[in-house]
Amino acid sequence: MKDIRIFxxxxxxxxxxxxxxxxxxxxxxxxxxxxxxAALAAALSPLRxxxxxxxxxxxxxxxxxxxxxxxxxxxxxxxxxxxxxEDRYAVRPHLRDLKPMEGVEFVYxxxxxxxxxxxxxxxxxxxxxxxxxxxxxxxxRVIEMPRGTLDVEKGNHHYxxxxxxxxxxxxxxxxxxxxxxxxxxKVCPVEATWQEADGITVIDYDWCIGCRYCEAACPYWxxxxxFAKPNLxxxxxxxxxxxxxxxxxxxxxxxxxxxxxxxxxxxRMPACVEICPTGARKFGNVLDPKSExxxxxxxxxxxxxxxxxxxxxxxxxxxxxxxxxxxxxxxxAIADRLKAEEGDAYGCLPGAAxxxxxxxxxxxxxxxxxxxx
Amino acid sequence: xxxxxxxxxxxxARLAHLHRFAQVGQCVNGVTHDIxxxxxxxxxxxxxxALDPNLSPETTRMMGQIVDGAxxxxxxxxxxxxxxxHIAVNGEPQNCNGCHQIFKxxxxxxxxxxxxxxxxxxxxxxxxxxxxxxxxNRERLTLRDGTAVSFKETAQLCAQCHGTVYRDWQRxxxxxxxxxWVTGSAAQHRLNCNDCHNPHAPKYEPYVPLPGPNxxxxxxxxxxxxxDDGGKESPLQxxxxxxxxxxxxxxxxxxxxx
Lengths: 373, 258
What we know:
By secondary structure, chain A is of the alpha+beta class.
């Protein structure tokens, strides 16, 4: 106690621990403060470029995760998006939140013998799903593959020929395979993407933080990122929308094929199936034994892409069997022989001079009849 | 009237007679707008024109007009066949037998067609009209055993040779289904053989492929990597503007949104 008192009593002058406000220290502190403020302003300057249209409003900021929203909250969110679309595109969209149908699991099948690589599916998809036109986003890639291999490393998706199909290639369209074991869902740090009951892996564009982990995880390169603000001309907007499918996206979110769920969950076909000029694309409910896709899985030798990575895709490819056709050299030889034997009577009318040509027999080579021609 | 053979003098004489008759018919047509007489005149003119190897542009135009209903479209045809079959003559639908009651020409050895000249038969070995068309009733098709079928039941006809594809088509694994994926729903619509394939030349014509990916990170490195013009023009629109891609009827992206 005494020591302390002595210490206090001896501290009459300025303390050694108390900083002295000198001119130098004032200038130093002031410069540091100004520099810090300038750096903060520079760091925040991108915010100044945001338009009011891009800043999330209060409702969107407080919006819950898709799975936690009550129907009333979902209706509020839908109304907010409708207003936003109307402001931006001057069209009142037909927007709703379609849920998976009971007893339905979607499966896609694609006949590689029939695909001719015309890329109509690619552009029908862009038109249907309101993708950005510039920079362009396409969900479907058609890979031109050399005949005799399934090594996608040898494929080329930039093919630009005057005409397709090319005789030395076949065409392998790739889009989201809606895997039953999707790696993209596992890596999402915020659960912005998940698999629904009907097998479609969806993205909530309001929940996605744009980390692009899912893009890296997908072995099929099926996910696309909006690096720039999506540009979509007003007159090209498709007003038929669903919350989880083709409503307009923002910059910095992921998107991908969702089997046109705003169409398919109402019983309709996806746009790529509707447009395909050759009928190579097949879509349906695999839980329905009478559906076309079930029939294909039963009767065709289907395969999936990159089976070894264990993603269990719901997207199956198949080739047709070799059909006996008129290009068969054996059949042509038979026809030539008949023509030589019958002369002018070949192929004449019934009742006219000479026998009626038995066209079908002529078209069938011996091996087709089991060798009993 | 009986079948006319152009190989005999009698046939030619009758053809000349027919021509005169047709000219009279043409005059009558001007007054009465009698459709049958109009047909007679048009047919006679077409037959005469066909005898001349150097067709005038006017004739070609007229023939093109006559055979409008049968003109071929590249790609999926999506032309609904009717029963009975008909053909547009000067914009008026006409039944096949309207002409073929007079003309029962049956090209005995694959002679060149004198009337349906737009029909290019490229069907492999199947190179005779009467393999599929009923020689007696042109509004019907004929199966191999002589059974007549309507133009709406072409699948049976094709099945005679293309059994494997027919089996696949019945199962739904070949061909195209539109409207709905729900099996058996009223909206579901399966296309027939001739909805996609031209029966006279069933092999698909080649297509001009639409433009490929030109997006960020996926663009063609050799070409312009990223073309951002503020959304005024998509790569598809730019591509369609190129003169070599302006062929009408081949490049339309039909469908899209409802």
